[in-house]
Amino acid sequence: MHRLGLSETVLVFPEHRGFLGDEPLAETVQRLRSAAPEKKLVIEVTTIAAAIAAAEAGFDMIQLEKLAPSDVATLVGLLNGATRRPVVAVAGGVNAANAAAYAQTGADILVTSAPYLARPRDVQVRIHPTR
Fold first, then answer.
1. Would you place residue 130 in the very low, low, confident or very high pLDDT band (cuts 50, 70, 90)?
2. What order of strands is seen across the sheet that includes strand 9-12?
3. Strand 87-91 to strand 40-45: parallel, antiparallel, or no bridges (unpaired)?
4. What is the DSSP string of 92-119?
5. Rounded CA gap, 111 and 107, in Å?
6. Contact residues for 131 (Cβ-Cβ < 8 A; gap 6+)
7. Which of 4-18, 45-59, 75-89 has the lowest mean pLDDT?
8. Phi-psi bin for 24: left (phi > 0), alpha (psi -120 to 50), beta?
9. Rounded to an integer, what distance in angstroms lies between the CA atom of residue 24 and that of residue 53?
10. If DSSP codes are grouped into helix, strand and coil, which group holds residue 45?
11. What is the distance between the alpha carbons of residues 80 and 32, in angstroms, rounded to a whole number?
12. Which of 60, 71, 107, 123 qualifies as a FRET site for 35, CA 20 to 30 Å off?
């Protein structure tokens, strides 16, 4: 489980950033840490460049939304040399067919609901009298 509930972290989605105007990410991190020092700061990004900027700004976790495994591996390689490396979580489209490819990228967490989904089974019920 990458998150047990919504109260453990502050998760910043790209849509939230639309309300922040031109506020630099480092200022966003500083403001959020002041307001909720006990929380981990997580940001969702959709590009390698946005992930690097978020890491440099000081986010604790970077959640990569729908990046290809090759892009995730590239990012992990770039972040591995960082002084303070954030946790890298891969989300969006991770499933049983591609989880191994994402796991091989060096990402720390795979976010998926795939284990909770199953194809319907054909179930037959037969009722017989007990006498």
1. confident
2. 9-12, 40-45, 61-65, 87-91, 109-110
3. unpaired
4. SS--TTTHHHHHTTT-SEE---GGG---
5. 11
6. none
7. 4-18
8. beta
9. 10
10. strand
11. 25
12. 107
Q: How far is CA 88 from CA 64, 105, 115, 119, in A?
A: 7, 10, 20, 30
Q: Are 105 and 99 in contact (CB under 8 A)?
A: no
Would you mind telling me the total number of residues written for the chain in this entry? 131
For residues 13 and 44, give the distance between their C-alpha atoms in angstroms, rounded to a whole number. Answer: 5
Whether the pLDDT of residue 25 is over 70: the answer is yes
- Indicate the pLDDT class of residue 4, thresholds 50, 70 and 90: low
Let me know the angle formed at the C-alpha of 3 by 52 and 105, rounded to the nearest 5 degrees. Answer: 45
Tens of pLDDT, residue by residue over 84-114, are 999 999 999 999 899 999 999 999 999 998 7
3-state SS of the chain: helix, strand, coil percent to 5? 35, 15, 50
Angle at Cα 44 formed by Cα 24 and Cα 16, nearest 5°?
Answer: 60
Residue in this structure with the two tokens 């499933």, named with its chain if needed: 95
Q: What is the distance in angstroms between the CA of the first residue and the CA of the last residue of the chain?
A: 50
